[in-house]
């Protein structure tokens, strides 16, 4: 009798112990595949950025055996062309036509704002793997919206502190006239002017134009101590080349948010040598996590990763953390958000947490271009948090 009871209770205990996994498996089966909707640029000046994000995200999923929280991952992809005018239609294809569980996108701030609006209205999970628009984790913040990248203000602010420390007083800024350019310059100005410097001229041209000549002539005539800029992708390649060709590189130091020289050095060649920028990633961080990531990325894609690849990878990690907490349920926004709000994300950039408005709180490195690498010179700004202005949730 005694023995029978013991056997019975062992059997019961085994059942209980096995239950959570068996239950999770059954749950994952009834949930079916996890549909991830990529909305990224596949054409235009930001095309290569979209590819790197896609690569990074898929690398994470492959490392998990193709599954997140027990659910096999399936991808749908829309080319957003970095065109805000098409953004609402494009994001609605993913939400309404494809019925995705989660949207991952995008690069361009103007497009991301339309995506945030649609995600907020529909309640669909949105992970932003680049676009730094303040509103996404500011006025438009929501429990279902998260960013794995940065806010535009952050790298600008970090570089403003550096420029002031270098002793510059008079600076001209130049960028594309849209949210990313305006907000990066705002960040730069906030830090630089707080430290006693002044931005004497703010030059801009419409996105994605690259006719820089007239503006470069104006910079030469203004003779500032230095120039600060935000350009990225194909536009950054051309700007760095044109700045050097105009003879300005020798006379007026050029500083940037790190996108100026990330994923672009092959094409920029010697014209980028020695440029200083600030960003939340660099090529020689030499931490174990980054070394493993870079090795896996290079093996898989025969390419070196850049900041965009890291942001894509971390969007994958964030999705993993959130969905593991909800046992794969992408509709359980509260559970998902709670897990991410208390998470420390083990990123190749160094670990980071999320602010109350779901934007990374992270270190910004001062980097210098040496050959084909953005080499760390030091920390420009430690644990920098975006103010998240206007976020109520
Ligand atoms: C943006 O539009 O927010 C943006 C685009 C490209 C970058 C960074 C920010 O590299």
Structure description:
The structure is a single chain. With 393 residues, this protein is of the alpha/beta class. It folds into two domains: 32-150 and 285-358, Response regulator (Rossmann fold); 153-279, Response regulator (Rossmann fold), CATH 3.40.50. It contains twelve helices and 14 strands. The protein has helices spanning 2-31, 47-63, 87-97, 109-122, 153-165, 179-194, 213-222, 233-245, 265-268, 288-301, 307-325, 333-341; strands spanning 34-40, 67-68, 71-79, 102-104, 125-128, 145-147, 170-176, 198-205, 226-230, 254-257, 276-279, 353-354, 360-370, 373-384. The strands form two sheets. Strands 7, 8, 9, 10, 11, 12, 13 and 14 form an eight-stranded mixed sheet that branches. A six-stranded mixed sheet has the order 2-3-1-4-5-6, with helices on both faces. The longest helix is centred in the N-terminal third of the chain and has 30 residues, at 2-31. It is globular and about 70 Å long. The model is unreliable at 1-8 and 10-20 (pLDDT under 50). Bound molecules: P-hydroxybenzoic acid. Residues 46, 107-109, 130-133, 152, 180, 232, 259 line the site of P-hydroxybenzoic acid.
């Amino acid at each position: 009798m005694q023995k029978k009871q013991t056997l019975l209770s062992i059997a019961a205990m085994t059942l209980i112990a096995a239950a959570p996994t068996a239950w999770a498996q059954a749950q994952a089966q009834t949930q079916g595949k996890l549909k991830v909707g990529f909305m990224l640029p596949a054409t235009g000046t930001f095309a290569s950025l979209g590819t790197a994000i896609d690569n990074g995200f898929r690398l994470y999923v492959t490392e998990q055996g193709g599954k997140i929280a027990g659910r096999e991952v399936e991808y749908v992809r829309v080319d957003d062309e970095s065109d805000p005018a098409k953004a609402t239609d494009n994001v609605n294809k993913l939400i309404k036509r494809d019925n995705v569980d989660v949207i991952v996108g995008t690069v361009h701030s103007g497009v991301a704002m339309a995506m945030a609006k649609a995600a907020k209205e529909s309640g669909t999970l949105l992970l932003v793997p680049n676009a730094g628009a303040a509103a996404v984790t500011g006025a438009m913040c929501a429990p279902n919206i998260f960013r794995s990248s940065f806010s535009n203000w952050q790298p600008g602010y970090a570089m403003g502190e550096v420029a002031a420390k270098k002793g510059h007083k008079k600076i001209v800024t130049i960028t594309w006239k849209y949210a990313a350019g305006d907000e990066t310059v705002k960040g730069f100005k906030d830090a630089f002017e707080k430290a006693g410097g002044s931005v004497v001229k703010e030059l801009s041209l419409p996105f994605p134009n690259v006719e820089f000549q007239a503006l470069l002539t104006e910079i030469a005539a203004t003779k500032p101590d230095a120039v600060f800029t935000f350009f990225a992708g194909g536009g950054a390649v051309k700007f760095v080349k044109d700045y050097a060709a105009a003879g300005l590189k020798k006379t007026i130091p050029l500083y940037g948010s790190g996108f100026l020289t990330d994923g672009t050095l092959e094409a920029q060649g010697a014209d980028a040598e020695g440029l200083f920028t600030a960003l939340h990633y660099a090529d020689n961080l030499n931490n174990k996590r980054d070394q493993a990531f870079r090795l896996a990325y290079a093996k898989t894609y025969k390419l070196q990763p850049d900041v965009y690849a890291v942001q894509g990878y971390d969007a994958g990690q964030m999705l993993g953390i959130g969905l593991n907490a909800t046992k794969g349920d992408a509709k359980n926004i509260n559970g998902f958000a709670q897990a991410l709000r208390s998470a420390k994300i083990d990123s190749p950039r160094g670990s980071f947490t999320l602010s109350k408005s779901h934007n990374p709180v992270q270190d910004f490195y001062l980097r210098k271009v040496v050959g084909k690498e953005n080499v760390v010179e030091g920390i420009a700004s430690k644990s920098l948090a975006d103010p998240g202005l206007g976020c109520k949730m």
